[in-house]
Design a protein that fits this description.
Radius of gyration: 36 Å
CATH topology of one domain: Serine Threonine Protein Phosphatase 5, Tetratricopeptide repeat
Strand content: under 5%
CATH architecture of one domain: Alpha Horseshoe
Number of helices: 36
Length: 683
């Protein structure tokens, strides 16, 4: 009713404006003045009968009367464009589309310039296009609608609504240039037209021009900061990966509509994307309470608790979500992640295999194929973490067989699997085969170069990556060069590559990774003050960077300085990632330096459960056992450490560290022999 009333008001206002305008045209022949009173009366009666028709199942007598009065209103005031809309609506409401088309065509036969007939046809054709969201579009009707609205804008270039509709139709037809012209023409006539601004924003989003789309939504939000407009602006920020701005806008939207669950969900999602876990958790818990039958909210609660390493709470929320929707693939996959976080790799593998077997088909559509490829890759990674390289390689090969476009990626994963498991001959064999098959694939070339460095062929590896720079002088290429130079112990080359990568780093995350790599470089060069300065810069930017906290803490402990500070840094890293094997090793080493041997032993044993093939951890545990007087246990750990050093890549091999372990092992054996001889002497 309000919509109809506004149109009636428009009719009166249009009449007043026309009267003033015509009065100013002295000395010119006047066109016949519209009969405003008759037009308003017939519009009101047409509206009344249309409402009655709607209430009583479109009874023909009411429909006929409504049509009769709307026609009379159009005849009384031909300039009132919305009357054609009302007439079209009643035809559509009554299902008389054919009658409407025939009548409009007859009107055009009598008068080819009859703009109202074009409006009727245009609206009917537009109505018959179909549902674009369902992918059901009648291309013929779309072309006819565009043709009619094109004629309307030619005959009445000041019709803003027609320009907006033409823009919408051209966008639907994927004629982006014509759509943009139509929307811009509408804005020339009405600079604040919401529908034109919205249409342009959506068009620019379609084209991937998020910067201009944001500008359109910002203009619209400035004049109409409604929750829906703010949501659309936030969505565009998300498309541009500007989650910080999206969060800011969604907070404003939630202030306007505090009970809107969809806005709350979108805000929670963006907070999760930016790892603001505490606030995201609170919102998802509120959503779960508001809609206790929705498993997705409980799933997100479980995922956040898992990230926060509160695994008991994560498990509880997961079980509640599973009870609501046990067949949900995302919920099933969450259980795999939970088992992995709990350190139950074999169980995680078994669960993921069950999911893959249950969802296996003879053929897959594109979305199913993509999802299955993700699961197969995850299975391969779990096998790799569980020291099962052949099973991992088989999973990656199955991924490649599923989707040939993933062949290079699968090959890279196989190479990395054998490298991580210290099977360097197999890794080299796979790398050369992949290089022959995918000679121009960037990922294959980088991972092959990395393997060459592992094999002690550092100069060859650096040269290979420099070839990439000839075609790709981007941040990723310079980072790859820096990493290869680090393995080749070419720290001058690494410094230069990091400098170039830093110039190309835009986001805070990108800049943090440069600071971390430079800090690690200085540490390996034994420039400890400079290394510490880089890590301090990084932590000033992001105090929650667990890798930097751990590296700095370990570096202090290894030099046996500022141990209390080292302890605090490593503990903060473990709060962020409690099951990280490297961090557990660091904590054990700090406790060893502090003389707290029981704590040191406990955390080093936990570290070995997570990283069983790291020679440094075995060396550290050997030191603890030696100081505890457990010579046999110390000898066993140092022997394992030497064995793992021998299996390590040439790039990782540290002759000085190996010599230290060898010296400690020999000393322990001599001491054990002396003690054994002493014990065997008769008293």
């Amino acid at each position: 009713m309000m919509r109809k009333a506004r149109k009636a008001s428009r009719l009166i206002c249009t009449g007043l404006f026309a009267t003033v305008a015509l009065g100013a045209q002295t000395g010119q022949s006047k066109p016949p003045e519209p009969n405003r009173a008759a037009a308003y009366y017939n519009f009101a009666m047409g509206h009344l009968y249309a409402e009655l028709a709607s209430m009583y199942g479109n009874r023909s007598e009411y429909v006929d009367k409504a049509i009769e009065h709307y026609k009379a209103a159009m005849q009384a005031d031909p300039g009132a464009a919305f009357l054609a809309e009302e007439l079209t609506d009643i035809y559509i409401q009554a299902g008389r589309l054919r009658d409407a088309v025939l009548e409009a065509e007859e009107m055009l036969r009598r008068d080819p310039d009859n703009i109202e007939a074009h409006r009727i046809l245009g609206r009917i054709y537009a109505r018959m296009i179909g549902d674009a969201s369902q992918g059901r579009i009648d291309e013929g009707m779309l072309r006819r609608a565009i043709e009619q609205f094109g004629k309307i804008t030619q005959k009445d270039p000041s019709d803003v609504d027609a320009w907006v509709t033409l823009g919408r139709l051209q966008r639907l037809a994927q004629n982006s240039v014509e759509a943009e012209k139509a929307y811009k023409r509408a804005l020339e006539l009405d600079a604040d037209n919401e529908y034109a601004l919205q249409g342009l924003a959506l068009l620019y989003q379609d084209l991937g021009d998020t910067k201009t789309a944001v500008q359109m939504w910002q203009r619209l939000a400035a004049q109409n900061p409604s929750p829906r407009v703010l949501q659309a602006l936030a969505s565009t920020y998300e498309q541009a990966r500007d989650y910080k701005s999206a969060i800011e806008v969604l907070r404003k939207a939630l202030e306007l509509a505090p009970k809107d669950l969809e806005i709350k969900r979108e805000l929670a999602e963006n907070l999760l994307n930016t790892e603001q876990l505490g606030e995201a958790l609170k919102l998802y818990q509120e959503l779960a309470r508001a809609n206790p039958r929705e498993p997705q909210y409980l799933l997100r609660v479980s995922q956040i608790y898992r990230q926060q390493r509160e695994l008991a709470k994560a498990r509880e929320a997961h079980e509640r979500a599973k009870d609501l929707d046990p067949r949900n693939l995302e919920i099933q996959y969450n259980e795999v992640s939970l088992l992995e976080a709990e350190g139950k790799l074999s169980e995680a593998i078994a669960r993921l295999k069950q999911i893959l077997e249950a969802t296996a088909k003879a053929a897959y559509g594109p979305p199913e194929r993509a999802n299955r490829a993700i699961l197969l890759e995850r299975l391969g990674l779990l096998y790799r973490a569980n020291e099962q390289p052949e099973q991992a390689a088989e999973a990656f090969r199955e991924m490649a067989a599923l989707d040939a476009e993933l062949g290079a990626r699968a090959a890279a994963q196989i190479i990395e699997t054998y490298r991580a498991c210290k099977l360097f001959a197999r890794a080299e064999q796979e790398a050369e085969a992949a290089y022959r098959q995918y000679p121009n694939d960037r990922m294959i070339r980088v991972i092959r170069a990395s393997l060459l460095a592992d094999l002690g062929r550092g100069e060859e590896a650096v040269a290979e990556v420099k070839k990439l720079l000839e075609a790709h002088r981007d941040r990723e290429a310079y980072l790859a060069l820096a990493q290869i130079c680090e393995k080749a112990k070419d720290f001058e080359g690494m410094a230069g590559a990091l400098e170039q990568a830093e110039r190309l780093s835009e986001s805070d995350e990108d800049k943090e990774s440069i600071l971390f790599m430079r800090g690690a470089m200085y540490e390996r060069m034994k420039k400890y003050e400079q290394a510490e300065a880089e890590f301090r810069k990084l932590l000033a930017k992001n105090p929650r960077n667990a890798s930097a906290l751990n590296y700095l803490g370990y570096m202090l402990a290894d030099r046996d300085v500022r141990l209390e500070e080292a302890l605090e840094l490593v503990q903060r890293a473990l709060e962020l990632d409690p099951y990280n094997g490297a961090y557990l090793d660091s904590l054990g080493w700090v406790y060893y330096r502090m003389g707290k041997l029981e704590e040191a032993e406990r955390y080093l044993r936990q570290a070995l459960e997570r990283v069983p093939r790291d020679p440094t951890v075995n060396d550290h545990l050997g030191d603890v056992y030696f100081r505890q007087g457990k010579l046999k246990e110390a000898i066993a750990q140092w022997q394992i450490s030497l064995k793992e050093w021998e299996a390590s890549s040439k790039a990782e091999l540290d002759p000085d560290e190996v010599a230290k372990v060898q010296k400690k092992l020999e000393g322990a054996k001599l001491r054990l022999a002396r003690e054994g001889a002493k014990a065997s002497k008769p008293r």
